[in-house]
């Protein structure tokens, strides 16, 4: 799955999503996902445009499928780059996804408006895309915690309506009917920084997926005073792939600072998890 961003004081982009009536991700309590438990404003009515570019065999959001088919790789993309006025979300799971009306409702429960929906087909399957804005402002999502809530809400719906996807999603470890394979973080993690013009750099990260990863990546980058201008965050099965346009004081980041950024992220992503209260 995949994603793009815009953050408070930082422009950013994303794309593709799914929804549930109760958007708490994977059945976690509000105390476990505080960013999902913010006070929600009453949503203003909005017009949703649904464009169907091609038809396919009937599929529904209730998880019905041919059990003899190979399980496709689920993908969720959050794109902050392609549309200046909206966050674009794209969801793909072979040809098994339907209209995703529950997903759109779940997004609205997060205080979002789905201003446009689109479905298209290619050799990889059916792609459902949504252009979403914040209901309170009519603008694209600029909060990394809300972007992560969008991503987890979509994945939660995939697990609910397509339980067979649990073997292909990191969140299936706790909430799936079939356990996914464990991904070696050392092997999966790849970090690269390259020039993206005179005023910014392109920062690429690929690693094992987990809840909260998008928020953590942005925090690590901004903690060393690097600005995240825009980007995309993709969830592709058990892997997460992020692409961030970054700068330091309005300029592309220098080679020494690139080294600091890369080492900081490698340490964070590869360190073993430990109990905070171990004494």
TrEMBL record:
GO molecular function: amino acid binding
Keywords in alphabetical order: Repeat
Span of the signal peptide: none
Lineage start: Eukaryota, Viridiplantae, Streptophyta, Embryophyta, Tracheophyta
PANTHER family named in the record: ACT DOMAIN-CONTAINING PROTEIN ACR11, ACT DOMAIN-CONTAINING PROTEIN ACR4-RELATED
The species this protein was found in: Populus alba
Keyword check for Phosphoprotein: no
The protein, known as: ACT domain-containing protein ACR
GO cellular component terms, A-Z: chloroplast stroma; chloroplast thylakoid membrane
Residue span, ACT domain: 88-168
UniProt function note: Binds amino acids.
PROSITE patterns assigned: ACT
Domain of life assignment: Eukaryota
